[in-house]
What we know:
Organism: Dyadobacter sediminis
Keywords: Signal
Signal peptide: 1-22
Shape: globular
Protein name: Lipocalin-like domain-containing protein
Largest sheet: 10 strands, antiparallel
Number of strands: 10
Amino acid sequence: MTVQRKCIFLFLLTLSACSQSADNVQEAASILMNQSQWRIDEISVNDAITFKEGKLTQQFGGIDFERYMETVELKKDGTFSGVFKGESKPFILKWKENKANITVGAADAHAKSGEWTIEPHDVSSSSFTMKTQSTAYDYPRVTRIALKFKAAK
């Protein structure tokens, strides 16, 4: 292997290590809890970006989100705390580890509606994505929503 190829290989290896996804649910949970706060970076509705870098983008005929959590944090006790844009009081949900993913939902254990999922491959030390599907926004059609958060600095 030439020196140039070795340098390229080492660069790519270093780059991949910086943004590596979690391998399992336990690692994903650890990454999520170790970051004190996560800040919203992107909102996608049915794979169309409707919010990016602090700005809402209008989608013709699409669903707009004017109320969203700007910051969230996951605590070791299972609390998922988020602060909506323009508000100061946190909104409390619960998160839990499952066999294949992490779910975020109502603090009432019996309520199953409105549950969000976080897949391990969607979690890294720099960002994570949580997803849900619902007919509540455009009944009877199913709407897919993804919220991408970046580690707050």
